Amino acid sequence: MKSDQYRSINRNGESHNAELQFNYVTPFIEYSFYKSEHWYAEIPVQFGFGKARYVDSTTQEVLDESNVFVYEPAMTIEYRFWRFFGVGAGVGFRLALKDKGKIEDVLTSPEYIFRFKIYFGDIYKELTKD
Q1: Is residue 87 classed as helix, strand or coil in its secondary structure?
Q2: d(Cα 61, Cα 55) in Å, to the nearest integer?
Q3: Mean pLDDT for each consecutive 10-residue tract of the chain (130 residues)?
Q4: Which of 22, 84, 88, 102 suits 115 as a labelling partner, its CA being 20 to 30 A distant?
């Protein structure tokens, strides 16, 4: 790992070299507001929750921890270049709200989305049609 991935944390007069770990789960909904033969425009929105923690790089001891609520709105454009495949890109924003834990890092950030999509439903319909 690069050294800038660690931060110095002082606990009880001791200095610890700690790594920020941020884990969360986000179910999502997606609204398609434009659709043509090849182009799709969608607004995916994710709501999630998880934990952020500082972990000592040597002992793997959790030094501090916070609960986090995550809201991620975005907008994506997709081009369906063949019957079963598409490529897309988009931008969004992750808003992370922390509880009163001691996590000092900012978890809110922009998102950049690149995707390759396989239309499994259409493949299934093609394989099972009579």
Answers
A1: strand
A2: 6
A3: 61 80 92 93 95 87 90 96 94 92 86 95 90
A4: 22
CA distance 10 to 7: 10
H/E segment holding residue 124 = helix 120-128
Quote the tokens at residue 77: 């454009």
State the DSSP string of 4-55.
Answer: GGEEEEEETTEEEEEEEEEEEE--EEEEEEEE-SSEEEEEEEEEEEEEEEEE
DSSP bridge partners of 83: none
First to last CA, the chain: 55
